[in-house]
Design brief:
The protein has eight helices and seven strands. By secondary structure, the chain is of the alpha/beta class. The protein has a single domain (about 10-185, about 220-245), classed as NAD(P)-binding Rossmann-like Domain (Rossmann fold, 3-Layer(aba) Sandwich), CATH 3.40.50.720. Strands 3-2-1-4-5-6-7 form a seven-stranded parallel sheet, sandwiched between helices. Helix 4 (about 105-130) links the parallel strand 4 and strand 5 (about 135-140). Helix 1 (about 20-30) packs across helix 8, helix 3 (about 70-80) runs parallel beside helix 4 (about 105-130) and helix 4 packs parallel to helix 5. Bound molecules: nicotinamide-adenine-dinucleotide. Nicotinamide-adenine-dinucleotide binds next to helix 1 and helix 6.
């Protein structure tokens, strides 16, 4: 296998589960030193150990990415272990699928904190080192929900729309310092998050049956397919790709 991330230090939030786990594994296999930032109760420690046992370099730095103090500590732990972070994948995120009029203020604040504020906190902590290192790549996991409205997902869609503009505005502000910032926008994925989303939407009467998913995107996306798209954005192959939205949705949004 080619080693497309040799010499890079990657921090992946939500890197212990779902597509974040797939990215931790793929980025490590491509030669990156990987800092997995995920909740303390996650599988992060075991994932890092497994990667090290396979001959890669990885550490687990636990944090709730919506908490500034925990984020600062986790970023420092990764920098102390591996040096400046040159690839940041802002991937951690949570689902909200609830009728708009039943959405509580607490739920609104929590989803916006985990899906949006986290990108602000983690990127702000990582950027000084990335700039000092001469540049890097930031990948923000958005969704088709950043451009497509789904009933019961006003809150989730709002959070993903914010991810788009976060990635684009960062790209413009930091382009002259060698930083690229892009959004990756998957369709429905076969992960805990995606399967829970399908179950919850079905409960609320939204048609996300196998037939409806097949009609919109052929089949469920695999976590490895999101990781492969993120790998492109992380690698120097994407050296002139900046401020873009890369849809990994098999044409869902192309119609
Ligand atoms: P997942 O639920 O399988 O994994 C998410 C990971 O993030 C878990 O390891 C979890 O522990 C971690 N995490 C959750 N909250 C956290 C927090 N506060 N701090 C640190 N880590 C936290 O999910 P996934 O399918 O990989 O999805 C994650 C991202 O992908 C989200 O941003 C989501 O919006 C986006 N996404 C998912 C789908 C889908 O269908 N699964 C589609 C489009 C976009």
């Amino acid at each position: 296998m080619t080693r497309r991330l040799s010499g890079k230090v990657a921090l992946i939030t939500g890197g212990a589960g779902g597509c974040g786990l797939a990215a931790s594994e793929r980025f490590a296999a491509e030669g990156a030193k990987v800092g997995i930032v995920d909740l303390p109760r996650s599988d992060g420690e075991a994932v890092a150990q497994r990667l090290c046992d396979a001959g890669h370099q990885a550490i687990f730095a636990p944090a709730d990415v919506s908490d500034a103090g925990q984020v600062e500590q986790a970023v420092k732990a990764v920098e102390d272990a591996f040096g400046a972070i040159t690839v940041l994948m802002n991937h951690a995120g949570i689902l909200a699928a609830v009728p708009f009029l039943e959405t509580s203020e607490e739920e609104w604040d929590r989803v916006m904190a985990v899906n949006v504020k986290s990108m602000f906190l983690v990127s702000k902590a990582v950027l000084p080192g990335m700039i000092a290192a001469g540049g890097g790549s930031i990948i923000c996991t958005s969704s088709i929900s950043g451009v497509v409205g789904t009933p019961m997902e006003v809150l989730y869609c709002t959070s993903k729309g914010a991810c788009h503009m976060f990635a684009r505005a960062l790209a413009v502000e930091f382009r002259d310092r060698g930083i690229r910032s892009n959004a990756i926008c998957p369709g429905f994925i076969a992960t805990a998050h995606g399967l829970r989303e399908i179950e919850t939407l079905t409960r609320h009467g939204v048609d996300v049956s196998e037939a409806a998913i097949a009609s919109a995107q052929g089949r469920l996306c695999k976590p490895e397919e999101v990781a492969a798209a993120a790998l492109f954005l992380a690698s120097d192959d994407a050296s002139f790709v900046n401020g873009a939205q890369l849809f990994a949705d098999n044409g869902y949004t192309a119609i």
